[in-house]
Amino acid sequence: MDGNDHSMKNINTNCANDTNKGPKVQTDALKKSNRLDQELMERMELALLGSNDGIWDWNIRDNRVYFSPRWKEMLGYADDELSNELSTWSDRIHPDDTERTWADVYKNVHGETEYYENIHRLRHKDGHWVWILDRGKVQLDENNKVIRMIGTHTDITAEKENQLTLLHQAQIIEQTHEPINTTDLRGNITSWNKGSEKLFGYKAEEVIGKHISLLFRPEAYQIFVKNIPELMKEGTYRCTLSLLKRSEEPVLIDLSLSLLRDHENVPTGIVGYLQDITERKKAEDALLAQQQILQHQAHYDALTGLPNRVLFADRLEQSIQKAKRHRGGFALFFIDLDKFKHINDSLGHGVGDRVLKTVAKRLQYIIREEDTLTRLSGDEFTLIMEDLSRPEDAALLAEKILAILGTAIVIDEHIIYLTGSIGISLYPQDATEEEFLLKYADTAMYKAKEEGRNTFQFYMPEMTEFALKRMEMKTHIRQAIENKEFLVYYQPQIDASTNTLIGLEALARWQHPTMGLLLPDEFIPIAEEAGLIIELDQQIMQTAMKQVRQWHKKGLNPGILGLNISMQHLEKGDFLQRIKDCLNRNDFKAKWLELEITEGQMLKKPEEVIMKLTRINALGIGISIDDFGTGYSSLSLLKRLPINRLKVDRSFIRDIPKDEEDMAIVKAIIVLAKSLNLELIAEGIEATEQRDFLMDNGCLYFQGHYYSPPILAEEMEAILLKGKVG
Q: pTM for this one?
């Protein structure tokens, strides 16, 4: 509703009786009144000039309004830019304020209030809103009729916006989920927000006015107050401490305190910002514990608890630096357990692991605290003997080690006797660098093995000749690959129920120019060490595929070709493409091929192996696990592998039917293969008793000298032409 309407309908009625007076009297009175009004207005403007307020004067009888220049200036206008009409004010009131503002005006006009006072917003010339404190009072004539209303406008925009900001901030603090509270300088709580209520369980009305110490254990509070002088000096203080909830449950808090100050910078109180870090601290502690575990795992052997190769390298470097400083010496022992593989093969890896743990404890028992014993890998240990004054002391320790190794180890019903071969290098006599000290100790250990094992050898320069021979062997292998000196032998795989051929395994042999025919054990480990195994695998694969393809062209059926693949070869990024290229080059069907990977290799990187083998199997190529039973693989892993066949390791076949334990293991493997719907081939069949035992228990596929040793392609072709073995 328009402001003029309000004034005309509701207010001017009070002046109706004035119209009964004569014209001349009214004119004189009006002139006198206007003159008095003008004088009054001038006096008021002079009086309010210093206060920077604007003046308005509303003559209710004729609805005239006077707005002072300062009033208009507040809204961004010059004196002559706004007319002195009621609408000048009423049209600029904020829509949300209009009704309340007019209501306050009417209350004063109708005598309900002694004064008119209202805060509202007026639109500025540039469009923004100006907060106005509007004060006024009605004037009455001799008949107590309302004739005018005079007042002032005060620009309170800055104060109002500051007030709104403070109110907004107070509401944010009050409602925030983060605990914030304040105290006076004596520690009495003066504010307590929602976050504090949620964290501690106290309502604001329960704690305001009480001392902050109610959140502390007494001894903790005494420690805390000792830091208050720092807060008073610096203005801020931060700490981590444990406080108590209402339930007496402790809570770990990251506390940040700041001083509250008045306008003269005098401290008046303390504001505390609190963060519950209980769960974060638990997580950090758990992470630290995990890091310590990982740190330990990175430097210590999981089986024996001894330092591993990583920590050994660090300790060896420390020993060298210490010896340099003190111009002293030390001995490095390289200890290898003789024929330890036989324990794993015959008694299983579980027993083998327990033997290694026993050996580690016994060796630790006889060495000094300052010496370092390490499990380097497998059944190899190293020992750094510090502060060596005489080589004889190293010899005495070596004799003790051999004696402790020779003491019987009892594992369940098994009594096990071990021997060891020990090589010793000396600092600084033999070398002053880590690499050569370890190399020379290793070389001396191999010399001890050549001397019949169960002995020790100090390094001597001539021993390096042995290492040189190994280096020469690596060079010869490289040359042999280039000269195609490696031959492919084929060993038949037989279905014993019909004596028919189901496949054949391709096996590498080295026709050495001077050493004669060498078996894989004599060159495969060196080829792997030299990084030549991939080229060797490729050459054997190419030769075997080409030969099998020729047999197929002749109408012969050699069955599935089994090829051994090394882990190094499988790990190559382009392995799959190499296989495809070889298949295409030889016009070889994927279904004719089966790749064999040993169980021990598979267990080193099971996830990577599963991924690679799955992609190979997708081509139609078969996968078999060689030497099965020696790698200690899990049933869950076997279920995930894309395999077609298991090959029982010859170590379990060798002593059948004399060894009851081997027979039990083989029976279990047969049952396992059937449950997983896998074919099973037994390797190393050499006797009728072995064949009969296996057939009686459901294994019908064999490979071994009983049927045929590995033979050259010409002999293999004769078997193919014959159609059966034997």
A: 0.44
Element (H, E) at 528: helix 520-529
CA 7 to chain centroid, in Å, comes to 75
Give the amino acid at 86.
Answer: L
Q: Which residues are bridge partners to 495 per DSSP? A: 500, 701
The pairing of strands 679-683 and 645-648 is parallel
Mean pLDDT over residues 549-569, rounded?
A: 91
Given a contact cutoff of 8 angstroms between Cβ atoms, the answer to whether 148 and 158 are in contact is no
CB-based contacts of 606, cutoff 8 Å, min separation 6: 637
In sequence order, what DSSP letters do the residues of 263-329 get, joined into one string? TT--EEEEEEEEEE-HHHHHHHHHHHHHHHHHHHHHHB-TTT--B-HHHHHHHHHHHHHHHHHHT--
Identify the pLDDT of residue 298. 82
Residue 168, by phi and psi: left (phi above 0), alpha (psi -120 to 50) or beta?
alpha
- For residue range 59-70, what is the model confidence (pLDDT) as tens digits? 988 888 999 999
With vertex at residue 336, the alpha carbon angle to CA 334 and CA 340, rounded to the nearest 5 degrees, is: 170
- The angle that helices 660-675 and 688-696 make with each other, rounded to 10 degrees, is 40
Question: In the CATH hierarchy, which top-level class contains the domain 3-161?
Answer: alpha beta
**Chain segment 181-217, per-residue pLDDT in tens:** 889 999 999 888 888 888 898 998 998 999 999 998 8
Q: Which helix (H) or strand (E) holds 501?
A: strand 500-512
With a CB cutoff of 8 Å and minimum separation 6, the contacts of 352 are 340, 343, 344
- Tell me what the mean pLDDT of segment 559-574 comes to: 86
Fold type of domain 300-459: Alpha-Beta Plaits (3.30.70)
| Among candidate residues 337, 331, 339, the one with its CA nearest the CA of residue 367 | 331
Q: Are 567 and 601 in contact (CB under 8 A)?
A: yes
Where are the chain's structural domains?
3-161, 176-281, 300-459, 533-714
Q: Compute CA 119 distance to the chain's CA centroid, rounded to the nearest angstrom.
A: 59
pLDDT at 166 over 70: no
Helix and strand numbers, DSSP H then E, in the chain: 28, 26
Record: fold of 533-714: TIM Barrel (3.20.20)
d(CA 4, CA 90): 8
Of how many residues is the chain composed? 726
pLDDT at position 8, please?
42
Q: Hey, what are 264's tokens? A: 């003269």
Topology alike, domains 3-161 and 300-459 = no
- In this structure, which amino acid lies at residue 385? M
pLDDT in tens, 299-313: 899 899 999 999 999
**Taking phi first (over 0 means left), then psi (-120 to 50 degrees means alpha), and beta for anything else, what does residue 348 get?**
left
Cα separation, 564 vs 536, whole angstroms: 11
Which element (helix H / strand E) includes 508? strand 500-512
Q: What is the pLDDT of residues 279-333, one digit of tens each?
A: 888 888 888 888 878 787 788 998 999 999 999 999 999 999 999 998 899 999 9
Report in angstroms the alpha-carbon separations of 236 from 172, 190, 204, 269.
22, 19, 25, 12
Superfamily name with CATH number, domain 176-281: PAS domain (3.30.450.20)
**Encoded amino acid at 395, one letter:** A
